[in-house]
């Protein structure tokens, strides 16, 4: 189902939607309290933002540098043009090593590439290690938030 359809179904339950909003505000307020406790918070944010902008502006150069440096230590770097190629590379590696079960951690890349369903379709069991990711995995759902993947679920 498309996200807008699922979102409409979710907010149709007024009580659940209010609980969800309250929970998200609780998380946001906690983050704001922690940020306020660090006197140089804004400077740190600005510095991190500048580092991110710089890195993104030279990303291809840094990725090639990373590849060159890691290859000197025996690391194999794989490049993929799209999600399909990414998934095929991962599957080929797993098949070469006769992997039947994969224990993995939370990853936006693998989420965006739909790696788990792809591997499962090809007979490889995937077990998430992040508790929130594991919960939504067991419920056959997609994560609802990048940091809090099961924030939409009540106890």
Give a description of the structure:
The protein has 155 residues and is mainly α. It has a domain at 78-155: Rossmann fold (3-Layer(aba) Sandwich), CATH 3.40.50. It is built from 8 helices and 2 strands, in the order αααααβααβα. The protein has helices at 3-12, 14-36, 41-57, 59-71, 83-96, 108-112, 115-121, 131-138, and strands at residues 101-104, 125-128. The protein has a two-stranded parallel sheet. The longest helix is centred in the N-terminal third of the chain and has 23 residues, at 14-36. It is flat, with a radius of gyration of 20 Å. It starts with a helix and ends in a 17-residue tail after the last helix.
Write the layout of secondary structure elements.
Elements: H1 3-12, H2 14-36, H3 41-57, H4 59-71, H5 83-96, E1 101-104, H6 108-112, H7 115-121, E2 125-128, H8 131-138
Parallel strand pairs: 1-2
Task: Summarize this entry quickly.
By secondary structure, the protein is mainly alpha-helical. The protein has helices spanning about 5-10, 15-35, 40-55, 60-70, 85-95, 110, 115-120, 130-140, and strands at about 100-105, 125-130. It has a domain at about 80-155: 3-Layer(aba) Sandwich (Rossmann fold), CATH 3.40.50.
